[in-house]
Amino acid sequence: MSDARTGPAAPAALPARRPSRADALLRSRGGAARVTFFELFFDLVFVFAVTQLSHRLLEHLTARGAAETLLLLLAVWWAWMYTCWTTNWFDPDHPAVRLVLVGVMVAGLFMAAMLPGAFGSGGVWFAAAYVAIQVGRTVFVVAATWAHELGRNFQRVLFWQAVSAVLWIGGALVDAADVRAGLWVLAVVLEYLAPWHGYTTPLLGRSSTADWTIDGGHMAERCQLFVIIALGESVLVTGATLGAHTPGAGVAAGFVSAFAGAVALWWIYFDHTAEKAAERIAGSPDPGRLGRSAYTFIHIVMVAGIIVGAVADEMVMAHPGGHMTAGFAAVAAGGPALFVFGHALFKRAVFGEFTRARLTALVALAGLAAISPALNPLTLHICTTAVVAALALWDVRAYRLYRRDLGVLGVPGTRPVAFGETAETGAFTEAGEPAETGEAPAGR
């Protein structure tokens, strides 16, 4: 037999594995891992990083500026995500692990402070801080797990991080902006592709997702908290911008629209989907696969949408009746669209299907972007908020229909089915009806 959280069990005829020095640092897998207070404290660094990225996009609202901000966001997310995976295995309350996390926080705060000048004079400092986080943390876990079954996984990770580190530092040392951007793009591509090919490394082979014996519930909760971080930054921007302007009718309307949009995004993600997805990954026979796809890669799309939307919130409150620009139209419609698209991908990865409501919302947002020249900023912002609010209300309606159908059709003695899933496949649907996932029902 094998266990999804602890990996293959030792055959009964073999002696028990001798404890290694890594065992003292690892989390106990006796029950669901909880997010510790120190992990929450650690996340404060990334609240600052998200704020820096939002402000940078606002100040460089061009195609190149957006591309550069996206590249920096991918680096920030990767630094946070790899630490999330590390604390999924290692106990953050162990003094040695905690000291490593403190070091990552120092480097992370320095990295976040350098974000505005990363493509200028601060490039070397930004790259050095990022490499210190990625390589330094991984060197620690490689040393700690050298004789442990997790050791080979971390050795492969270190190889690819060392390769990308050369590109990060090399790009930072080049003054030409285009060359720097090209080397950094290559570094990000190598880092993001590595998990998909199992960190294939000379002499060490490759890892499979079955080797990544993570605690799925912990991974889900950590990513949920990062979504909260991004939404919190959006709320802070809304409040700070209101305080900086006289609250006339236009500013007040922009404030209400911005706050209502943040509430709608929270509702879409947290009302039902987040909890059911956490249950799905926690009970998955291969939590590493869902951790990689649904959380490591897809959540960054939703986070990007929140950051982009926060830029629109600040702009609409500053100039609610101003001239419509292509930049504002892009962030006002693009932010919600990125979030909705990311959420649709998330549901697809976890539950096995897309929902018509999300596709309809994306079409509506695209239509608003197309007619934006005929609107002023406040009108466009209110319309995009109305789209995401309608999607949130649709989810509430779907849940009520599901509860109603369950009360009529529920059969005593059967397993209760979570909202939006079927007993056979667990796939989400619009109103609880069976989803066409193409997968055979369990047990057949």
Task: Please characterize this protein's 3D structure.
Helix 1 runs parallel beside helix 3 (95-113) and helix 1 (37-59) crosses helix 7. This protein has 444 residues and is mainly alpha-helical. It has helices spanning 37-59, 63-89, 95-113, 123-144, 151-172, 177-193, 216-243, 249-270, 273-282, 287-297, 299-318, 326-351, 356-370, 377-409; strands at residues 2-3, 7-8. Strands 1-2 form a two-stranded antiparallel sheet. The model is unreliable at 1-17 and 408-444 (pLDDT under 50). It contains 14 helices and 2 strands, in the order E-E-H-H-H-H-H-H-H-H-H-H-H-H-H-H.
Name the shape in a single word.
globular
Q: Report the helical percentage.
A: 55-70%
Number of strands: 2
Uncertain segments are 1-17, 408-444
> Can you count the helices?
14
- How can the largest sheet be summarized? 2 strands, antiparallel
Strand ordering within the main sheet? 1-2
Radius of gyration: 23 Å
Rounded average pLDDT: 85
* Global structural class: mainly alpha
Task: Name the descriptors.
66% helix; mainly alpha; 444 residues; 14 helices; disordered C terminus; globular; two-stranded antiparallel ribbon
Please specify the SSE layout and strand pairing.
Layout: E1 2-3, E2 7-8, H1 37-59, H2 63-89, H3 95-113, H4 123-144, H5 151-172, H6 177-193, H7 216-243, H8 249-270, H9 273-282, H10 287-297, H11 299-318, H12 326-351, H13 356-370, H14 377-409
Antiparallel strand pairs: 1-2
Helix pairs in contact: 1-2, 1-3, 1-7, 1-11, 2-3, 2-4, 2-6, 3-4, 4-5, 5-6, 7-8, 7-9, 7-10, 7-11, 8-11, 8-14, 10-12, 11-12, 12-13, 12-14, 13-14
